[in-house]
Amino acid sequence: MAGAAFRKPGVEIVPLSRETLQDRVYRHVTELILDGSIVPGEMVTVQSLADAFGVSPMPVREALRRLTAANALMVVSGRSIGIPALSRARLVDLRNVRFEIEAIAAAWAAERIDDQGIARLGQHLAALEQANAAGDVKSYLRANYAFHFSIYRAAGSENILNIIENLWLQISPYFNMLHDSGNYSTANEHHQAMFAALRNRDVEAVRRAIRADIDAAFDVLVDLLK
Protein backbone atom coordinates (compact mmCIF):
# COMPACT_ATOMS: atom_id res chain seq x y z
CA MET A 1 0.00 0.00 0.00
CA ALA A 2 1.17 3.55 -0.73
CA GLY A 3 0.79 4.71 2.87
CA ALA A 4 2.98 1.88 4.16
CA ALA A 5 6.13 3.60 2.89
CA PHE A 6 5.54 6.45 5.34
CA ARG A 7 4.82 4.27 8.35
CA LYS A 8 7.59 4.06 10.95
CA PRO A 9 7.60 2.34 14.32
CA GLY A 10 6.28 4.63 17.04
CA VAL A 11 5.03 7.25 14.57
CA GLU A 12 1.28 7.78 14.28
CA ILE A 13 0.07 9.15 10.96
CA VAL A 14 -2.89 11.47 11.48
CA PRO A 15 -5.06 12.31 8.44
CA LEU A 16 -4.87 15.97 7.51
CA SER A 17 -8.02 18.05 7.88
CA ARG A 18 -9.48 19.08 4.55
CA GLU A 19 -10.82 22.28 6.05
CA THR A 20 -8.48 25.16 5.28
CA LEU A 21 -8.01 28.37 7.21
CA GLN A 22 -10.00 30.14 4.50
CA ASP A 23 -12.88 27.70 5.03
CA ARG A 24 -12.86 28.32 8.78
CA VAL A 25 -12.85 32.09 8.36
CA TYR A 26 -15.64 31.81 5.77
CA ARG A 27 -17.69 29.77 8.24
CA HIS A 28 -17.11 32.31 11.02
CA VAL A 29 -18.19 35.26 8.87
CA THR A 30 -21.18 33.28 7.58
CA GLU A 31 -22.35 32.64 11.14
CA LEU A 32 -21.96 36.34 12.01
CA ILE A 33 -24.34 37.15 9.15
CA LEU A 34 -26.82 34.35 9.87
CA ASP A 35 -27.20 35.10 13.57
CA GLY A 36 -27.66 38.83 13.01
CA SER A 37 -24.28 39.99 14.31
CA ILE A 38 -23.66 42.08 11.17
CA VAL A 39 -26.60 44.44 10.72
CA PRO A 40 -27.71 46.54 7.72
CA GLY A 41 -25.91 49.87 7.69
CA GLU A 42 -22.96 48.60 9.72
CA MET A 43 -19.53 48.69 8.11
CA VAL A 44 -16.99 46.01 8.98
CA THR A 45 -13.36 46.25 7.96
CA VAL A 46 -11.17 43.41 6.77
CA GLN A 47 -8.63 44.25 9.47
CA SER A 48 -11.20 44.21 12.29
CA LEU A 49 -12.32 40.71 11.26
CA ALA A 50 -8.72 39.54 10.89
CA ASP A 51 -7.93 40.84 14.40
CA ALA A 52 -11.06 39.23 15.85
CA PHE A 53 -10.26 35.83 14.31
CA GLY A 54 -6.52 36.06 14.98
CA VAL A 55 -5.56 35.59 11.32
CA SER A 56 -3.96 37.60 8.54
CA PRO A 57 -6.19 39.69 6.25
CA MET A 58 -5.71 37.28 3.32
CA PRO A 59 -8.18 34.51 4.35
CA VAL A 60 -10.66 37.20 5.44
CA ARG A 61 -10.52 38.81 1.99
CA GLU A 62 -11.11 35.42 0.35
CA ALA A 63 -14.11 34.73 2.63
CA LEU A 64 -15.56 38.15 1.86
CA ARG A 65 -15.03 37.60 -1.86
CA ARG A 66 -17.09 34.40 -1.69
CA LEU A 67 -19.83 36.07 0.32
CA THR A 68 -19.92 39.05 -2.02
CA ALA A 69 -20.35 36.67 -4.96
CA ALA A 70 -23.29 35.09 -3.08
CA ASN A 71 -24.93 38.56 -2.66
CA ALA A 72 -24.61 38.29 1.11
CA LEU A 73 -22.16 41.23 1.40
CA MET A 74 -21.07 44.18 -0.66
CA VAL A 75 -17.78 46.04 -0.82
CA VAL A 76 -18.25 49.60 0.45
CA SER A 77 -14.62 50.55 -0.07
CA GLY A 78 -11.40 48.69 -0.61
CA ARG A 79 -11.14 47.85 3.09
CA SER A 80 -14.70 47.59 4.38
CA ILE A 81 -17.84 45.62 3.65
CA GLY A 82 -21.52 45.81 4.55
CA ILE A 83 -24.92 44.23 4.02
CA PRO A 84 -26.36 44.99 0.53
CA ALA A 85 -29.43 47.20 0.31
CA LEU A 86 -32.69 45.28 0.01
CA SER A 87 -34.95 46.32 -2.86
CA ARG A 88 -38.61 45.36 -3.02
CA ALA A 89 -38.00 43.19 -6.08
CA ARG A 90 -35.21 41.30 -4.31
CA LEU A 91 -37.31 40.89 -1.17
CA VAL A 92 -40.23 39.48 -3.19
CA ASP A 93 -37.93 37.05 -4.98
CA LEU A 94 -36.39 35.85 -1.70
CA ARG A 95 -39.84 35.42 -0.17
CA ASN A 96 -41.10 33.38 -3.11
CA VAL A 97 -38.14 31.02 -3.15
CA ARG A 98 -38.08 30.63 0.64
CA PHE A 99 -41.84 29.94 0.59
CA GLU A 100 -41.23 26.81 -1.49
CA ILE A 101 -37.78 25.58 -0.42
CA GLU A 102 -38.13 25.97 3.35
CA ALA A 103 -41.57 24.36 3.27
CA ILE A 104 -40.09 21.35 1.49
CA ALA A 105 -37.27 21.06 4.04
CA ALA A 106 -39.72 21.34 6.95
CA ALA A 107 -41.94 18.64 5.43
CA TRP A 108 -38.97 16.30 5.05
CA ALA A 109 -37.96 17.09 8.63
CA ALA A 110 -41.43 16.11 9.88
CA GLU A 111 -40.90 12.66 8.36
CA ARG A 112 -37.34 12.19 9.65
CA ILE A 113 -36.82 14.10 12.90
CA ASP A 114 -36.12 11.95 15.96
CA ASP A 115 -36.88 12.48 19.64
CA GLN A 116 -33.49 14.08 20.27
CA GLY A 117 -34.17 16.55 17.47
CA ILE A 118 -37.54 17.42 19.01
CA ALA A 119 -35.87 17.94 22.39
CA ARG A 120 -33.29 20.32 20.82
CA LEU A 121 -36.08 22.26 19.13
CA GLY A 122 -37.82 22.61 22.48
CA GLN A 123 -34.65 24.11 23.96
CA HIS A 124 -34.32 26.59 21.10
CA LEU A 125 -37.99 27.50 21.42
CA ALA A 126 -37.53 28.22 25.12
CA ALA A 127 -34.55 30.44 24.26
CA LEU A 128 -36.69 32.30 21.70
CA GLU A 129 -39.42 32.93 24.26
CA GLN A 130 -36.93 34.08 26.88
CA ALA A 131 -35.11 36.43 24.49
CA ASN A 132 -38.37 37.96 23.26
CA ALA A 133 -39.60 38.53 26.83
CA ALA A 134 -36.31 40.24 27.68
CA GLY A 135 -36.28 42.35 24.51
CA ASP A 136 -32.86 40.90 23.69
CA VAL A 137 -32.64 41.19 19.90
CA LYS A 138 -29.22 39.55 19.51
CA SER A 139 -30.14 36.52 21.61
CA TYR A 140 -33.46 36.23 19.80
CA LEU A 141 -31.80 36.21 16.38
CA ARG A 142 -29.26 33.59 17.45
CA ALA A 143 -32.04 31.38 18.84
CA ASN A 144 -34.13 31.95 15.71
CA TYR A 145 -31.27 30.79 13.49
CA ALA A 146 -30.64 27.78 15.73
CA PHE A 147 -34.34 26.82 15.77
CA HIS A 148 -34.88 27.05 12.02
CA PHE A 149 -31.67 25.34 11.02
CA SER A 150 -32.27 22.49 13.45
CA ILE A 151 -35.41 21.85 11.39
CA TYR A 152 -33.65 22.16 8.05
CA ARG A 153 -30.79 19.87 9.11
CA ALA A 154 -33.35 17.30 10.21
CA ALA A 155 -34.55 17.19 6.58
CA GLY A 156 -31.43 15.12 5.89
CA SER A 157 -30.36 16.87 2.68
CA GLU A 158 -27.06 18.72 2.43
CA ASN A 159 -28.14 20.22 -0.90
CA ILE A 160 -31.34 21.79 0.38
CA LEU A 161 -29.53 22.98 3.51
CA ASN A 162 -26.97 24.80 1.35
CA ILE A 163 -29.72 26.44 -0.69
CA ILE A 164 -31.51 27.66 2.43
CA GLU A 165 -28.30 28.96 3.94
CA ASN A 166 -27.65 31.02 0.81
CA LEU A 167 -31.16 32.47 1.04
CA TRP A 168 -30.73 33.31 4.72
CA LEU A 169 -27.38 34.99 4.08
CA GLN A 170 -29.29 37.46 1.95
CA ILE A 171 -32.35 38.01 4.15
CA SER A 172 -31.46 37.27 7.79
CA PRO A 173 -29.55 40.55 8.47
CA TYR A 174 -32.89 42.30 7.95
CA PHE A 175 -34.50 40.31 10.76
CA ASN A 176 -32.87 42.92 13.03
CA MET A 177 -35.51 45.37 11.74
CA LEU A 178 -38.52 43.26 12.76
CA HIS A 179 -38.39 43.76 16.53
CA ASP A 180 -40.19 47.11 16.83
CA SER A 181 -43.15 45.84 14.80
CA GLY A 182 -43.92 43.10 17.32
CA ASN A 183 -43.01 40.48 14.74
CA TYR A 184 -40.88 38.49 17.19
CA SER A 185 -44.00 37.67 19.22
CA THR A 186 -45.89 36.76 16.06
CA ALA A 187 -42.97 34.65 14.86
CA ASN A 188 -42.91 32.77 18.17
CA GLU A 189 -46.55 31.81 17.65
CA HIS A 190 -45.50 30.31 14.32
CA HIS A 191 -42.51 28.65 16.00
CA GLN A 192 -44.86 27.04 18.53
CA ALA A 193 -46.97 25.76 15.62
CA MET A 194 -43.88 24.37 13.86
CA PHE A 195 -42.78 22.63 17.04
CA ALA A 196 -46.20 21.05 17.60
CA ALA A 197 -46.42 19.94 13.96
CA LEU A 198 -42.96 18.36 14.02
CA ARG A 199 -43.65 16.63 17.34
CA ASN A 200 -46.83 15.19 15.78
CA ARG A 201 -45.02 14.40 12.49
CA ASP A 202 -47.69 16.49 10.71
CA VAL A 203 -46.26 17.37 7.28
CA GLU A 204 -49.02 19.74 6.15
CA ALA A 205 -49.16 21.60 9.45
CA VAL A 206 -45.44 22.31 9.47
CA ARG A 207 -45.62 23.53 5.86
CA ARG A 208 -48.35 26.00 6.85
CA ALA A 209 -46.47 27.20 9.92
CA ILE A 210 -43.20 27.79 8.02
CA ARG A 211 -45.00 29.69 5.27
CA ALA A 212 -46.95 31.78 7.76
CA ASP A 213 -43.69 32.73 9.48
CA ILE A 214 -42.06 33.73 6.18
CA ASP A 215 -45.09 35.78 5.12
CA ALA A 216 -45.35 37.60 8.46
CA ALA A 217 -41.74 38.80 8.22
CA PHE A 218 -42.19 39.66 4.54
CA ASP A 219 -45.22 41.87 5.26
CA VAL A 220 -43.31 43.89 7.85
CA LEU A 221 -40.25 44.33 5.64
CA VAL A 222 -42.35 45.40 2.65
CA ASP A 223 -43.92 48.14 4.78
CA LEU A 224 -40.50 49.25 6.01
CA LEU A 225 -39.20 49.49 2.47
CA LYS A 226 -42.02 51.89 1.61
TrEMBL record:
SMART domains: FCD, HTH_GNTR. PANTHER family: HTH-TYPE TRANSCRIPTIONAL REGULATOR MCBR, TRANSCRIPTIONAL REGULATOR, GNTR FAMILY. Keywords: DNA-binding, Transcription, Transcription regulation. This is GntR family transcriptional regulator. The keyword Transcription regulation applies. The keyword Transcription applies. Signal peptide: none annotated. Residues 19-86 form the HTH gntR-type domain. It comes from Mesorhizobium huakuii. InterPro entries: GntR_C, TF_FadR/GntR_C, Tscrpt_reg_HTH_GntR, WH-like_DNA-bd_sf, WH_DNA-bd_sf.
